[in-house]
Amino acid sequence: MSYDASAIKVLKGLEGVRHRPAMYIGGTGVEGYHHLFKEILDNAVDEALAGYATEIVTTLNPDGSLTVEDNGRGIPVDLMPEEGKPAVEVIYTTLHSGGKFDSSAYKVSGGLHGVGASVVNALSEWTVVEVFREGKHHRIAFSRGEVTEPLAVVGPAPKGKTGTRVTFKPDPLIFGNQAFDPSKIRARLREVSYLVAGLRLVFKDLIHGREDVYLDKGGVASFAKALAEGEELLYEKPFLLKGQEGEVEVEVGLIHTKGYNAEILTYANMIPTRDGGTHLTAFKSAYSRALNQYAKKAGLNKEKGPQPTGDDLLEGLYAVVSVKLPQPQFEGQTKGKLLNPEAGSAVSQVVYEKFLEILEENPRIAKTIYEKALRAAQAREAARKARELVRRQNPLESDDLPGKLADCQTENPEEAELFIVEGDSAGGSAKQGRDRRFQAILPLRGKILNVEKAGLSKALKNAEVRAMVAAIGVGIGGTGDEAHFDLEGLRYHKIIIMTDADVDGSHIRTLLLTFFYRYMRPLIERGHVYIAQPPLYRLQVGKKVEYLYSDEELAARLKELEGKSYEVQRFKGLGEMNPEQLWETTMNPEKRVLKKVELQDALEASELFEKLMGQEVAPRREFIEEHARYAELDI
After folding, report:
1. In b/e form, how buried is each residue of 594-618, taking b as 16+ CB within 10 angstroms?
2. Catalytic residue among 83, 247, 381, 504
3. Domain-terminating residue out of 214, 240, 265
């Protein structure tokens, strides 16, 4: 394949990116900030997919900038006749330019829109691109999309070295004082290591002095098993379904667990398609068709009673669906949903044929999977009856609620807030301290059920769960169970978990988050779930009172007060605060600190909940031992 200036096509103009960054990266918050890294990484991964790169090194530098270096061919540096500029300059200063519009340079790529490099450049305070090609070390520098140092040869390339090194610092004028989160970088590198089997990915965190290497030869099958970590498996070795139809390559890794949850991650040309698309729809349909076909042929479904639906058949399944295709069509610049019909038909054919083959070759496993689906159908019917019972109850009048819901006056859900409060004493203070115009209080008695270990029908028998479902108003559903979930019924646009700052409070908060993650995930995805941050300390200096939210904050303040007299009170629970203090510190929108719960990485979140709340004891013990040094002792 030729890869020089002739392979680069220009569709015109780098305008408006700085004025409307959300159009290109989805927003200027945490997600948008890290999207810059993902765009540059995608370009390096494309070199690996094309067969030219074997290693990508990402470095978080001491000044907060990020470097991504591959050992591929190196971006072309020769002049583009129609532009009169070197190809590397055009790629970094012109929207819709690059080697992705012409299949002579890349057969498959994730950087479809040709906006990645130029958008990152436009939204960075500065960018430096170094190219190692044909024995020379080239360098070009930019600031906010403009060339500051023209392309120049700065020396010879080390012997045999080729590739591209991009270093950039996101612009504080666009993103404020944000910084790269190493855990998000590690999560994406780990994800890519599964999707491109054999590619070596290195992350050097020079700020915290840590280096990680990701290299996986098991591909998407290993990925599926990693996704199910912490769950009891129905069988040990994951299955790989692999095939090609036309120009579309399909790879699916899957494994079944004894649990109630299902997790299916989808990718197109290594890009995570968070909103699914044709490949996800086709996978679910073909998977169900193959399983039903096998069950019918093997005479497994002889029972009367509810028949398994698609969701029943998926229960306990962890799968990764990856497609590679030459002309991917996505919904929006951030590539959340795949639209190509040919991807759907390829997945449908490969999954149906290969999965049916696996079932026929493994009759014992096939029987176990289908019997689990039959049990899921029975549990779904029981849950439906329980759900109907919950829906018939009026949350404002029912005596079954674990502490009466004190509702707010407004009927506008956008203004309304629901505080889910631990315990009756704190609930009492919250009810007295709140602004009843827009703040509702739901106290919970005792600990909520651990839904990671229980099914939906069991969860709905729990009084605290029923109270929350009734009060929030959207119904309840698991992964892929949106049919029972109606966001139109949402009564509060802010659902705030308010628990003590001690170990018990943390446990209750984790149980609540597990419940929202497993059965009301769209609320998290749409930014409706928050965690209140009550203060840890009350500090009085003379007549002046202030509240501090961490040990670090207290230490810094006490250093300032050296030699002065002061009084410090530590709050161990919300119940220790009077209603005025609770309002002033934790509930008043003018002064409070809220943490929004975000679902940044499905694999990480799923694994963490399974480790902390799942059936397996060993992974939980390992996690606690590994993170014990970060814990606070509350003696």
Report:
1. beebebebbbbbbbbbbbbbbeeee
2. 504
3. 214
User: What is the domain count for the chain?
Assistant: 4
Q: Categorize the per-residue pLDDT at 428 as very low, low, confident or very high, splitting at 50, 70 and 90.
A: confident
Out of 378, 408, 430, pick the residue that ends a domain: 378
- Annotated binding residue at 181? no
Could you say which of 502, 567, 580, 632 is catalytic? 502
Distance between CA atoms of residues 320 and 284, nearest Å: 12
Query: CA–CA separation, 320 vs 275, rounded Å?
Result: 14
422 appears as a binding residue in the annotation: yes
Of 351 and 445, which is predicted with more confidence? 351
Q: Smallest Cα–Cα separation from 498: which of 569, 585, 396, 604?
A: 585
SS3 content of the chain, % helix, strand, coil (to 5): 40, 25, 40
CA distances from residue 342 to 35, 240, 265, 327 in whole angstroms, order as listed: 27, 21, 19, 10
Q: How confident is the model at residue 334 (pLDDT cuts 50, 70, 90)?
A: low
pLDDT recorded at residue 314 = 95
Handedness of CA 295, 298, 300, 301 (dihedral sign): positive
pLDDT at res. 615: 61
Catalytic site residue 504?
A: yes
What is the per-residue pLDDT for 576?
Answer: 81
With respect to residue 123, please indicate whether it lies within any of the assigned structural domains.
Answer: yes
C-beta separation of 28 from 173 below 8 A: no
